[in-house]
Amino acid sequence: MKNAQLTNTALRSFAIAGFCLLVSIVAAAQAAPDAPVYLLREYMKVEPGMEEEYLKVEHLWKKVHQRRKDEGKILNWNLSRSSFYGTNADYDYMTVTAFKSGKELEEAQNMTWEYITKGMSPEEIALANSTGKTRKMVSSSLSYQLLRSQSNAENRFIKITQVKAAAGKGVELEKAEAMMKPVFDEAGKMGAISGWRFGEHLYPRSAEGANYYRIESTNTMADMLTHECSGYLEKAFKKVYPTKDFAATMKSIRDLITLLDVELFERVDSTK
User: Fold this and answer.
1) Which pTM does this prediction carry?
2) What confidence score (pLDDT) does residue 148 get?
3) Is the peptide bond before 242 cis (omega within 30 degrees of 0)?
4) Element (H or E) spanning 43, and its range?
């Protein structure tokens, strides 16, 4: 009888331990970070009088990018127009292609003309051939998305803020932004924003340039223009961290960075 009781006790202990291990595994899986996302940004300056033709070209290229996405070669692609620029602006449009690893990025750089024109009509091939005549590619950059918050709303207007972390403060800034992610999640639930991103620039990178970026997006221009002064961030912050000092927290984050540039883009097209 005593041995039986010991056996039952051992079995119960083993079962409890197994259950705890299972819970730990599930919790770890739920807490795992998002899959890696690398963003290739390419900036285009449209040739004078060629904007309509340029957009036709990009619409054709969208079909190629959609096929690449369907085949798992990219995560997504989108085209955005700079919302405010002068006649001497460096670029008018930006495309963003998202990859899950360097392997896909390398494959993209080796994409053949045969693959690009697969299934195209002679007219479409001629249009694809005219790409270089409609715009100049001014520059490109590669970055790594560290954090992401996304609601179900459309990311039509995109505000990109370029920042430089104070010397030796990169890790501290990343921790601060991670602390703020639940706040932006809450802001999305409130309808104040439709998305938020935080990431690190990989290439090009210099001592003088930005090494991190933030992106906030909204569905309408009205939302973008009003949300800055609506106090939405403080409202969301207090819901998430009711005992924290909002002003002190914001100051501590501002002390970690130098603000370099803020741009506004409007989404024109994207893969599905």
Assistant:
1) 0.82
2) 95
3) no
4) strand 37-46
DSSP state of 168: T
* DSSP secondary structure letter of residue 202: E
Domain ranges of the chain: 1-32, 37-270
SS3 of residue 24 by DSSP: helix
DSSP SS3 for 166: coil
Mind giving me the DSSP string for 224-249? HHHHTTTTHHHHHHHHH-TTS-HHHH
CATH of 37-270, one of 3.30.750.24, 3.30.70.100, 2.60.40.10, 1.10.275.10: 3.30.70.100
Digit-coded pLDDT (tens) for 48-100: 999 999 999 999 999 999 999 999 999 999 999 999 877 778 999 999 999 99
Please identify which residue in the block is written with the tokens 């494959």.
107
